[in-house]
Amino acid sequence: MLALATLPAFAQNDVSIRLLKPQTNDIFGPGQSFNFEVVIKNVGTQDVTVQDTVIYFPTVNGNNLITVNPTTGDTSIVAFGFTGPLNAGDSVVRSQSFGGLTLGGNPGGTVSYCGLVDVVGPNWRSVTEDDENNNISCSAVTYQPGGTVSINELFTRNGAELQLQDNSYFAAGRYHVEVDNVSAAQAEMSFVDLTGRTVSTVLLNPNGGQIRQILSVPALSQGVYLAVLKLDGQVRSTRKFFVR
Questions:
Q1: Could you report the per-residue pLDDT of 26-75, keeping only the tens digit for each?
Q2: Ramachandran region of residue 199, left (φ > 0), alpha (ψ -120 to 50) or beta?
Q3: Please, are residues 120 and 53 in contact by the beta-carbon 8 Å criterion?
Q4: How distant, in Å, are the alpha carbons of 86, 96, 225 from that of 93?
Q5: C-alpha–C-alpha distance, residues 228 and 162, integer Å
């Protein structure tokens, strides 16, 4: 008689985000208060436990946003997080209020405002989510410049002036810099954690309108980091990467 063996079931890691606010066709700009509101849902079978952290943050036209301390002038990347539990099938609504948004160099018009989500922790280390397309949700909103900047204001230093192509990526403990359409003579890459602390900064060598370098980064603890590219002293690109 043949015996049938039951194969063990493997948990699927998958969280999704849905942007509630701002909504498509909403209008905002300097001094115009608005909410960043999202629904985050665990659509997989792997629970987010009290040892795991859910991180979510906004972008505009693919650029991370910052806040500026009105007293010190210090800047911080805008990102939020919370620890579990967020069990399989559960969802939460998170909302953050801001006094306005200033997009450097943007003349106004339609922009893409997105919310992104990721999870870090022992249950989410070295895994590929079942569906990574649901880690981002966007709305086409209208940006109107010219208002009065408030205290609780969001900024981006890129806006519409960003034209270069940054396809850099992090793999196996190294950061692979692949940037095209570079017109600057000087370039540098900084690695920043979500508290706004710069972990390290490396000078780059533009050559023929391109940058192709492989950078060894310092030993980083598990979490989300930003690779901030400066050209001639100006921030021109930010890219998120994960250390698991």
A1: 998 888 889 999 999 999 999 999 888 898 999 888 888 887 766 666 66
A2: alpha
A3: yes
A4: 12, 10, 24
A5: 13
Domain residue ranges of the chain, discontinuous segments joined by +: 15-159, 163-243
Chain centroid, CA 128 distance in Å: 18
Torsional sign, CA 54, 155, 227, 140: positive
| Per-chain mean pLDDT for the chain | 82
How many Cβ atoms sit within 10 Å of the Cβ of residue 81? Answer: 17
d(CA 12, CA 34): 35
Write out the two tokens for 215: 């950078």
Report how far residue 22's alpha carbon sits from residue 35's, in angstroms, rounded to the nearest whole number. 7
CA distance 204 to 207: 10
Out of 3.40.50.2300, 3.30.360.10, 3.40.50.12280, 2.60.40.1930, select the CATH number for domain 163-243: 2.60.40.1930
Q: Tell me if 15-159 shares its fold with 163-243.
A: yes
CATH number belonging to domain 15-159: 2.60.40.10
